[in-house]
């Protein structure tokens, strides 16, 4: 006989990102990746695939799971590199080469005495054109390299590696910004038959989200007498809300986990013998805690600092330029500057975009999309006085609006 505590703990574990290696749904996208890679393994040459999609749409998870299953059918080596950690092109080549050495891709391979960009590139080129089995290089968060590798021709050279004569390199680029490939691919000097494949991961729909959560909880429910951990209506509420914003499954898993936690806390008060099902009211409570800005009785303790800074930064830009709209790139730059003095930061441009979308969803700003993310235009949908009322923190606001360091 298991304890109620144990069921809660298993349910929360099942919703952790790393709890499963099973991709639910995404059949079309995964079939496309499979067919393309399988045809390449059966062929001599290299190729490249670019996967585009917003955060939390299962890109990294799908690629890694797919490559693990392909390992059972084909012989190849794999190197996974997150481009957020790349400092410059030399650093990127060096990391790739040291991975190649430690994976023993070629027994003669060694780090050169002088690691110049040219010497590293030459070694990698000669290795990928002489190896027996394919080498799959996954470059995750590939759009980040535009900010670290300043020389565009270095980027093109890297993406042309799979198409060198006899190259056995398969490059899989995973990007968040949807326009990355539109900008990059036409610039590569490739023949039409070498056109890289682009696969889009659209945001998860309400049904996709429900299926993913149910799949994760089903094992736990089966183990414990088919108890229902999250009520269908509560799950539907969560799935519809997230599907109507950005379809980010990470957020869904997090919210469901927190709803279970809340349920557990409330259950503790009544000393239950069986698990209580998470209901709509509890799910709503978590949503309001995640987006406190939608609450009418807002105060400065509940609005997250990042949201406050972002709103004030837009106002500051408006005051400075006397224009009501500001581009995302300009805003991001100033926002980062201000964040530093509050010892906080966002990890990437895509996280910043998410923050903007979240505030837009709360009706406080408008985000007008453009072809390039950096050119998105943002404007406040409330006036200065209303913002003051919402923040209820005159000192904070005055500091941002008048501090010379932020100009
Ligand atoms: N189809 C799915 N089935 C089951 N779990 C999934 C699925 N898609 C995503 N997940 C879960 O969500 C987590 C986040 O997905 P993933 O890291 O692949 O997102 P991503 O698209 O790469 O996001 P980002 O652009 O922020 O890197 C995964 O670790 C996995 O646990
Ligand atoms: Mg990812």
From TrEMBL:
GO terms for molecular function: ATP hydrolysis activity; DNA replication origin binding. GO terms for cellular component: nucleus. Keywords: Cell cycle, Cell division, DNA replication, Nucleus. InterPro entries: AAA_22, Cdc6/18, Cdc6_C, Cdc6_ORC1-like_ATPase_lid, ORC1/CDC6, P-loop_NTPase, WH-like_DNA-bd_sf, WH_DNA-bd_sf. It is found in: Nucleus. GO terms for biological process: cell division; DNA replication initiation; mitotic DNA replication checkpoint signaling. It holds the Pfam family AAA_22. The keyword Signal does not apply. Transmembrane segments: none annotated. Residues 311-391 form the Cdc6 C-terminal domain. It comes from the Eukaryota. Belongs to the CDC6/cdc18 family. This is Cdc6 C-terminal domain-containing protein.
